[in-house]
Amino acid sequence: MTISNIMQKMIEYSNGNLHDINHFIKVWTYAKNIAEIEGVKKDTLYILEFAAITHDIACSLCREKYGNTNGKYQEIEGESLVRDFLKDTDLSQEQIERIAYLIAHHHTFKDIDGIDYQILIEADYIVNAEESSYSKENIRNFSEKFFKTTTGKNLLKSIYGL
Known about the structure:
73% helix, Hypothetical protein af1432
C-alpha cells in the first residue's frame, strides 16, 4: 500500500470533517519533512508516514463517545481502530503493531522510544500549537522539554518566532 492510498483511505474515513483531514495532512507533512532532513531510514519513514496520517483516527469516535477529543481518549481508542483500519493492507504485522503503538502513545511525552515516535510528537505539537493558539511561553517550554530533533526545533523557531 502506498502513502497516497492510505491518505485517500483516511480522507474517506474522516467523512468530510475538514478540520481532521487538514490536521493529519499537516502533521504528515511536518513529520515527513523532519524525518527526511534528519536522515531517518526509509523503513522507519514509511511507518512514520502511516502513523502521521492515522494518528488521530479515533477523533470522531471520541467526540461521539466522550464529547471531546482528549489526547488520552485518542490513545485508548486509536490503537484498536488503527489495527482494524490497516488489517487489509500489505503492511506486515510488525509494521501494523508499531503504527498502533505510536497511535496509542502520541500524546505521551515520556519514555519516547524511537525516532519515529519523537518526530510524530514534534510534528503533531507544531500543528496543535497553531490550531489551539498556544502561547509563545507554552511553545518555548514544550520545545525545551520535549523537542529533540534539530529540524523540529528549527521549525518551531521559524514558525513561532522563538
